[in-house]
Amino acid sequence: MNPKLSRLQPYPFERLRALFAGVTPPAGISPISLGIGEPRHPAPEFLKQALAGALDKGLSSYPATAGEPALRQACAAWVERRYGVQLDAATQVLPVNGSREALFAFAQTVVDPSREGATVVFPNPFYQIYEGAAYLSGAEPFYVPSDPRRNFAADWDCVPEATWARTQLVYVCSPGNPAGAVMPLSEWERLFELSDRHGFVIASDECYSEIYFRDEPPLGGLEAAHRLGRLDFRRLVAFTSLSKRSNVPGLRSGFVAGDAALIKPFLLYRTYHGGAMSPVVQAASVAAWNDEAHVEDNRRQYREKFAQVTPLLADVLDVALPDASFYLWAGVPERWAHAVPGLGADEAFARELLAQYNVTVLPGSYLARTALGSNPGAGRVRMALVAEAAECLEAARRIVEFTRRNA
Fold first, then answer.
1. Of 6, 67, 182, 339, whose CB neighbour count within 10 A is largest?
2. 372 phi and psi, to 5 degrees?
3. CB 222 within 8 A of CB 79
4. What is the pLDDT of residues 342-387, one digit of tens each?
């Protein structure tokens, strides 16, 4: 067996199942899960029709790993409409089977494990794929501390210069998971300067870019590079997906875009890895990237939902409206720190909430690692407001009652 596999830690939801072992929620109270970030708004009807319409031709041929020209062009056209950035669809865009597998595979392409001290840098808390990708590529992860004063945004200034010198890949997540912070242009400029100095590649995870609560949409990595005159997008690749934008997590469709010098070897890797997208999925993806009406409606639903739920929870928890994404990153009351022997405050809160009110939330410490003396997710829980508004409101009311009852 590959010895690197032994370094992978249990996925957060495996740890959650272990935490909940032996818990029996009260009878007669329907379960509500805010634990997993799986979009549950209905998939657009026109996407179902596009899938069905492509079945006859789409199942009878092997797909090209690079994707059909029509799909690459639809992706490039969306980038231009959304960010004002023009791309060469043939060399700077590559369809992928969702951003998750692409984020993992990208590290296997760009990391050179033969270089001493190969390092992959990413925020802490973080999307767990970054860590697994680092380990399996033969690199060591470096967990960038987050700043609670800036909605848990990564504090890049905390990375030592010696670490930057060993860094080959930096994962950026904006809007962030779990806290929803959006990186401003000044932060991008800082990362680009560091990339120029040390030669590392930036992988920008932007899967939550279309769910936001401010008037101005989140700044993307390609857009930031364009504004700063980096028109070749050197050492930068952005990852995006239809899962959250279009409510089709089961479609497994997204694309990467950016530096053509990185896209070319990534395509080579994916050719051998077997990363081609089904022609049926490609046909539906073209329809999705070409339509914004369903995205605007989706965003409206999230805005209305968060506007109702956030004030309720803010009465009992340390929580506020994020910049973007569909999560609330809530601090739990101090009393939970010693409520259950052997459990952290976030774990105890989550376990007792399930036991008493049949609501599932994810302990924040499961989304982070202890680094530099602390775990930045400790004492917080992540709540995914992905269900319909009525269900999310019911969950919020239960959490309020639970928190007051256990004050």
1. 67
2. 55, 35
3. yes
4. 999 999 999 999 999 999 999 999 999 999 889 999 999 999 999 9
